[in-house]
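Subject: Sanity check before I submit

Could someone independently write out the structure tokens for this chain? I want to compare against mine line by line before I put it in a report. The sequence has 294 residues.
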Amino acid sequence: MDLNAVRMLVQVAEARSFTVAAGQLGLSQSGLSRAIGRLEAELGVRLLHRNTRNVSLTPDGRQFVDHCTPLLCGLEDAERRLGDRPCTPSGVLKLTAPSMFGRKVLVPLAGQLMAVHPQLQFELVLNDRLVDLVEEGFDAALRTGPISDVRMVARPLRPLHWVTVASPDYIARHGAPATVDALQDHTCLAVRNLRSGRLVDWQFRDGDGLRDVTPPARMVFDSGDPLVEGALAGVGIVQVMDFAVADALADGRLQRVLQPFEGRSRALSLVYPPSRQASPKLKVLADALLAGQW
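---
Independent answer below. Compare away.
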């Protein structure tokens, strides 16, 4: 079996396009198509559905790629070891992440990794746009919620938890709410979902379930990034993810309120194409994120 053709198949499966994969591999589109056609003939099965818009794996193709990808990664690792080539993380690691997580967690973490690995560089795209990792040349992404793209590897990280916080100055002036309903008597800062036009609900534990509450907001933002600054300035109460206020809670600039009612969480994953699985630079990032020291 031609291992190069197997590698080409994996690249086409990730890109969902002969044109994109050919450009990434430095091959002609026709040459790439012929190589995979020969692989299909050798195996006696159709591996790809082809149409004028894109390509996708057949069920047999998906099974074949799922089994072959770890083997290819192992072969690449073995090749590096036999060649006595160092597995030192080096080069540019291109990542995308939600804005606040990127600023609060990823930037400091990247700085720590660069200090340990001088040959490592980062290119960070910090926004909430859902990028196509393969087509846009990203090594990995930090994504929240369920991962629907079956082409990608998704490694679960520590889930994100929401906390409700206010500054000591605000609490001294207005007191802390003792119940969720008591929020009606307080100044709350919230975010408007620009697609739906509605305020983003806050969520609290209510018995064995969760309760959505539309905050009585006196100040509304178009994104969650300014919430922490508003809370630190003593403007009002906010509900944000725990990583965004970890430092402010640790040094006392913010305090948790309604702590017995906390319960909202969301999955967080490091997502990357299977072809990046053996990358030393991605491995050091994954190890640091999995350590959960953030």
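---
OP: Matches mine. For the report I'm noting this point. The longest helix spans residues 59-82.
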